[in-house]
TrEMBL record:
Lineage: Eukaryota, Metazoa, Ecdysozoa, Arthropoda, Hexapoda
Signal peptide range in chain numbering: 1-20
Domain of life: Eukaryota
Signal listed as a keyword: yes
Name of the molecule in the record: Uncharacterized protein
Organism: Callosobruchus maculatus (Southern cowpea weevil)
Keyword tags: Signal
């Protein structure tokens, strides 16, 4: 009887996890060499939310690591949440994608940059 109870609990947990809300993600702004950077950023962030819908530190870690697999950077990709200004000196070659993340309660901006 204990085995059946354990299986039932796991099934209920799986159903709850599947129904967790994945936010609506769209491009806010970017400075990229080509559109593939935007497409991959959106896809990688969506995957982070689908794997850990309520754990923001884990979401951004997965986001950065996945993005670095596609577009390798020597020191990895940095992620900022809620930053409204990104200053870039004229000599710097900064690549970034800022994404709008809209949930039921709010919209925030998550930016990934080199």
């Amino acid at each position: 009887m204990v085995a059946h109870k354990t299986i039932f609990v796991l099934m209920v947990f799986a159903v709850v996890a599947v129904h967790a809300e994945i936010p609506e993600i769209s491009i806010n702004s970017s400075q990229v060499p080509n559109i593939t950077y935007e497409f991959e950023a959106k896809r990688d962030l969506e995957l982070g939310y689908s794997l850990h819908p309520t754990d923001l530190p884990m979401i951004v870690r997965i986001f950065s690591e996945l993005y670095n697999r596609t577009f390798p950077e020597p020191y990895g990709w940095k992620v900022s949440i809620g930053c409204s200004l990104l200053y870039q000196p004229a000599a710097a070659q900064v690549i970034y994608v800022a994404l709008n993340v809209k949930t039921k309660n709010a919209t925030s901006v998550i930016t990934i940059f080199n």
